[in-house]
Amino acid sequence: MSDLPLRPNVGACLFNRQGLVLIARRADQPAGEATSGAWQLPQGGLDPGEDPEAAVLRELSEEIGTTKARVIGRMDEWLDYDLPAHLIGRALGGKFRGQTQMWFALRFMGEDSDIRLDADAHQEFDAWRWAPLTELPAIAVPFRRPIYERLAQDFARYAVAG
């Protein structure tokens, strides 16, 4: 399975006016605040030939139902992760061993009521909240934790009121 490719993906750190980041609870995980890995940042696949910035805005629209965001930054490089062995062949449609991700920082320009988790027929999340950026590593599943640690460090400059 190690010869499977990485899936191209984009991720969004959506900051509100207070400098908090939106995290959402996966609908396919058991409910509960303490469930490890149930909370994550919006992210999704990059279609062939699709511009990553356009893709992250599309993902926000599909996953959290808003277009009221503007890009304020992005990672300088793609970040990769491999799935744990027990998920290879099952997760990501069984076609990928993990993901290569371009992460964007975005400023939310709307109101909380503009976030609609039920905007898409395939609802990925069942709850959301604003959280301090420093909380990201603690909410991540272990195989994504290094990426969330990197985001908490590199995107700290965006976690300010504005």
TrEMBL record:
Domain Nudix hydrolase: 5-153
One function term, GO molecular function aspect: hydrolase activity
One protein family per Pfam: NUDIX
Keyword Cell membrane: no
Protein EC: 3.6.1.-
Family named by the database record: Belongs to the Nudix hydrolase family. RppH subfamily.
Protein name (Swiss-Prot/TrEMBL): RNA pyrophosphohydrolase
Organism: Muricoccus vinaceus
